């Protein structure tokens, strides 16, 4: 989350009131003298969510998933698709990529780092297609309502 935050480590450190080098060491996890605490992780998460930086929900989803929960991600602000049918077709295509990646990754009964990376990339692309379709459906739904009933 810190790497993808605009300005990276230096900006995040300044925003949460930490020395940039200290934060870097805490995040690296290589020095036992520097440990990232739960409060700092929550501050970073809150900062990233507030600014809608990439992967901003990673921490809260990791915490939630460890207890069997799931945080519903907000719909991305993307332009609506031309047609809902095209959106459904895109989802089917992306899900087929997920199935292929999972099947190939697990073929030898071991998931390597490369397998994991490729599979997660395909899952993210499928999730993005789902979010785009959701946005298109919401847009079409709102367009069909009289103007006085549309959300502001």
From TrEMBL:
Residue stretches in coiled coil? 116-143
A single GO molecular function term of this UniProt record: DNA binding
Q: Which Pfam families match?
A: Phage_CP76 (PF06892)
Q: Which UniProt keywords apply?
A: Coiled coil
Q: What is the official name of this protein in its record?
A: Uncharacterized protein
Question: Source species, please?
Answer: Variovorax sp. HH01
């Amino acid at each position: 989350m810190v790497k993808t935050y605009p300005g990276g480590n230096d900006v995040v450190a300044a925003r949460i009131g930490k020395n940039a080098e200290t934060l870097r060491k805490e995040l690296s996890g290589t020095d036992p003298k520097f440990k990232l605490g739960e409060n700092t992780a929550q501050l970073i998460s809150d900062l990233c969510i507030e600014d809608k930086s990439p992967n901003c929900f990673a921490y809260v989803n990791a915490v939630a998933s460890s207890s069997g929960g799931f945080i519903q991600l907000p719909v991305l602000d993307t332009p609506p698709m031309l047609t809902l049918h095209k959106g459904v077709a895109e989802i089917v295509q992306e899900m087929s990529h997920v199935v292929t990646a999972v099947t190939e990754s697990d073929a030898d009964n071991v998931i390597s780092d490369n397998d994991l990376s490729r599979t997660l990339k395909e899952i993210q692309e499928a999730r993005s297609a789902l979010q785009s379709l959701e946005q298109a459906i919401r847009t079409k739904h709102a367009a069909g309502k009289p103007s006085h009933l549309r959300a502001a």
